[in-house]
Amino acid sequence: MLSRIAVLVSGGGTNLEHLLLAQEAGRIPHGKIVLTVSDNPGAYALKRAENHGIPGVCVPKKGVPQAEFEAALSKELAACRADMVILAGFLAILSPEFVRQWPDRILNIHPSLIPSFCGKGYYGLKVHEAALTRGVKVTGATVHFVNEIPDGGRILLQKAVDILPGDTPEVLQRRVMEQAEWVLLPQAAELVAAQIAKEKERVQ
Ligand code: GRF
Questions:
Q1: Which of left, alpha, beta for 22 (phi over 0: left; psi -120 to 50: alpha)?
Q2: Which residue's C-alpha comes closest to atom 8 of ligand 1?
Q3: Which of 6, 14, 40, 113 has its CA 20 to 30 A from that of 46?
Q4: Which residues share a beta bridge with 36?
Q5: Whole-model pTM?
């Protein structure tokens, strides 16, 4: 039985693209991407979903109270009967009340080796700027669960990427995506999808 995957996005959606390509190449054999949700109506990620024939919806966040936003999100996830959620460049914050509904079922990708360069203010290029300013020689990407504390961000997969002389934040961001993010996220999706599929079969 396939695990039904919803992918949450806010922007360009290159991670979504690589999930969709992995699915089409048979690299997520226990999962099926059934929905893309964006909190931003202008996200190019929605166009990518459409190009791959995957339904995409916008659940707007701007100016909407958190509880209302999360109720609308929950409604979409229920409607597509999602078993798991992947945050692929999703910038909206999810409350502990929301996260509690999905124990070990929400994955996030972050473009550094957690616990370095993560937490408040570390998103997008800022993560890579901070790594270059600090002078670290190795960075990478991390896929982690989004759970309630104490297990808040239990790490599932990590991959290291070298920092090279002359790197700019943009050059480094691209290398981290190519060498780590786009490789790790489909692998993580399959790991969790396989686990859920096993559990679903047990309760059948
Ligand atoms: C990626 O660097 C991801 O790790 C971070 O946001 C970026 C999203 O890029 N959380 P994209 O929208 O998948 O192209």
A1: alpha
A2: 89
A3: 113
A4: 7, 56
A5: 0.96
Instruction: Identify the CA nearest to 58 among candidates 34, 81, 42, 77.
Output: 42
Q: What pLDDT score was predicted for residue 108?
A: 97
Q: Residue 103 contacts by C-beta under 8 Å, 6 or more apart in sequence?
A: 147, 148
Neighbours of 130 (CB within 10 A): 18
Q: Which two three-digit tokens encode residue 96?
A: 């502990």
Q: How far apart are CA 41 and CA 170, in angstroms?
A: 25
Q: Which residue has the tokens 């550094």?
A: 112
Closest ligand 1 atom number to CA of residue 12: 12
Contact by Cβ (8 Å): 153, 145: yes
Q: CB within 8 A of 44, min separation 6: which ones?
A: 11, 12, 13
30 is catalytic: no
Tens of pLDDT, residue by residue over 128-162, are: 999 999 999 999 999 999 998 877 899 999 999 99
Q: Are 193 and 28 in contact (CB under 8 A)?
A: yes
139 in Cβ contact with 170 (< 8 Å):
no
* Residues paired with residue 141 on neighbouring β-strands, in sequence order: 159
